[in-house]
Amino acid sequence: MEAAVSDEAAVRLASVLVRARNDEEFVRRTLDGIFAQKTDFPVEVLFCDDASSDRTREIAASFPVRFVERPDGPYRPGRTLNALVRAASGDVVVFNNSDAVPRASDWLARLVAPLRSGGGADVFAFARQLARPDASALVRKDSDRAFGDGRVQATWRFFFSLASAATWRRLLLEVPFDEHIRYSEDVEWTWRASRRAERPVKVVYCPDALVEHSHEYTLRQLFRRFRGEGEADAIIFGDRPALARELASAARETLRDWAFLARAPRDWGEIPAAPARRLVQRVSHWLGTRDGNGGRR
pLDDT category, 9, cuts 50, 70, 90? Predict the structure, then answer.
């Protein structure tokens, strides 16, 4: 990777940790983007493929990556993440999903910058995710609302995404990921670490570190994802929302959807689908909180 002149303190080595499963559509672009980064510190790339049935691993093997095998046994994201962190050699670890495509050659430098400027402070930085060019209007709207310039997310209770993020490896060796939780393992870690009595971790959003990352979910997929997130919210935050509250949230978001879609006639075809999507999201989230409260550790 090309070196760039910088007055910042040197990073000894950054380990980019890539997790993948059936991402042959994106993995080449993602790895091309990672290896095109301009930094003033050396970089290694570790790759963990979760039993892909397509060409994901084959494509990854055409790059100078170091493969790390997924731990045996039932899949839990925390187990895979901890294995990657242990295998890394860098003092900085950068998580980047195989379908999160860096949008510029300064993505990595900008993502690591808050760690370097923090004077060794405990920082976990995460990147801005841009919806894919062919994303539906509602996916674009949700992506801009969640990320964007950060003003909306700052009003939420807590927000973080490990799809593209960076921190010090020593933190993750000291405070490993939870190996039991099935969803939102990134939120669980940062919430727990940010509330430590000693040396709490500071979560920093980097709106100028850009990756392309979004998903088009079917209603069935939305149901599964939001039920899982509801289960995790119950475990992490102790959430026990009433169904009426979830339905009110679905109604408010539907109104936001319609206001957004009304501004672009080309997107009016998505208007009928908005209420169903929001209803599925909130009802499944409510069901998930019941699951989580029934099995809280």
Answer: low
Domains of the chain, earliest start first? 14-212 (3.90.550.10), 219-294 (no CATH)
Amino acid sitting at position 48: C
DSSP E strands: which ranges in 50-133? 66-67, 92-96, 101-102, 123-130
Which pLDDT score, from 0 to 100, does residue 2 have?
A: 40
For residue range 38-82, what is the model confidence (pLDDT) as tens digits?
999 999 999 999 999 999 999 999 999 999 999 988 889 999 999
Residue percentage of the chain with pLDDT more than 90? 90
- Residue 44 pairs in a beta bridge with 15
In the predicted structure, residue 247 carries a pLDDT above the cut 80: yes
Answer for the pair 62, 30: CB distance below 8 angstroms, yes or no.
no
Decide the pairing of beta strands 202-212 and 101-102.
Answer: antiparallel
The pair of three-digit structure tokens given for residue 94, joined into one six-digit string: 């950068």
Identify whether the C-beta of residue 248 lies closer than 8 Å to the C-beta of residue 285: no
Q: Is-contact 197 254, C-beta < 8 A?
A: no
User: First and final CA of the chain: distance in angstroms?
Assistant: 45
CA atoms within 13 A on the CB side of 118: 19
| E strand intervals along the chain | 14-20, 43-49, 66-67, 92-96, 101-102, 123-130, 164-168, 202-212
Which two three-digit tokens encode residue 267?
Answer: 């997107």
**What's the CA gap between 47 and 193, in Å, rounded?**
25
Beta-bridged to residue 119, according to DSSP, are none
